[in-house]
C-alpha cells in the first residue's frame, strides 16, 4: 500500500498559464520523488502599464512517499 502527499507550489511565466504550469511541474520533479499528478488550483495575472506582465498558477502536486 502506498501513501501520497500533496504540496502546493506557485509558478510563473511571462508567456502563458500553460507555460507556468509546465515550469512548475518540471521544478517540482527536480525536488520531489514520485510525482504522480497535479491540478491547477488557481490562476492569476499581474498587470504592468495596462498589459499582462506575468501569468501565475497555484498547483497542488501529488507525490508518493517512499517506504
- Pattern of helices and strands: EHEE
Oligomer: single chain
- Sequence stretches where pLDDT stays below 50 over 5 or more residues: none
Number of helices, counting only DSSP H or I runs of 4 residues or more? 1
Describe the main β-sheet briefly.
Answer: 3 strands, antiparallel
Structural class: alpha+beta
**Overall average residue pLDDT:** 96
Fold and architecture overview:
This protein is an alpha+beta fold and about 70 residues long. Helices cover about 20% and strands about 55% of the residues. Strands 1-3-2 form a 3-stranded antiparallel sheet, covered by helices on one side. Strand 2 and strand 3 form a beta hairpin. The mean pLDDT is about 95.
Fill in the keyword field for this structure:
57% strand, elongated, alpha+beta, single chain, 1 helix, 3-stranded antiparallel beta sheet, 67 residues
Layout of strands and helices, then pairs:
Elements: E1 4-13, H1 17-31, E2 35-48, E3 51-64
Amino acid at each position: 500500500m502506498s501513501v501520497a502527499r500533496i504540496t502546493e507550489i506557485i509558478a510563473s511565466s511571462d508567456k502563458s498559464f500553460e507555460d507556468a504550469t509546465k515550469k512548475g511541474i518540471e521544478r517540482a520533479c527536480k525536488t520531489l520523488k514520485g510525482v504522480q499528478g497535479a491540478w491547477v488550483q488557481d490562476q492569476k495575472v499581474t498587470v504592468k502599464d495596462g498589459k499582462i506582465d506575468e501569468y501565475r498558477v497555484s498547483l497542488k502536486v501529488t507525490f508518493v512517499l517512499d517506504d
